[in-house]
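Contributing new records

If you add data, match the layout below exactly. Sequence lines come first and carry their own label; structure lines follow with theirs. Keep one chain per record. Anything else will be rejected by the validation script.
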Amino acid sequence: MPYHTFFPGQESNEKIIMIVRRHWWIFFKMFLFYFILALLPLVLRGLMLQYTTLLNGGTLTIILKLLSSLYYFYILTLFYRAWIDYYLDMGIVTSERIVDIEQKGLFARSIAAQKLYRVQDVTAEVKGFLPTLFHYGDLFIQTAGAEERFVIRQVPHPYETVKKILDLVKMKRQHLIGLGLNPDTAETE
């Protein structure tokens, strides 16, 4: 059965304006870490073959191959979990609201949403040499709702994203004012 929505809770009249994911550098760092972990047994095996006679056959060789297989299974499982967390974390800006989807492990997810007209301020924060070099940082979205502050981490081009969100908020507020509603006090659908 095909899905008629892109994310859980999407309303039929909502149009997705922007999807914000983590910067590619974050995934690259994670990949590099697991790649180095995957090379460790190969390096150790090479050193053992060169300097010892422990891998000349027998029970010890079988045990070391079994442990190596378990190690690789564990590393692949951890890499898959980290990739799922990277891929499924996202911020979605629609024509009506901002949705923050945060994946927490394999089987847990939190989804927070706030109407666009409730957004009071959007700021970007870029800290450090690599975030400045690769143009990524955190978005902080201040709202008037129960969830006072959204944080979307490690977003590419955060300053341009802030400008786009603030433009959408301004257009939504002007639209509500044009309908004769006060966006600060009125609850709209």
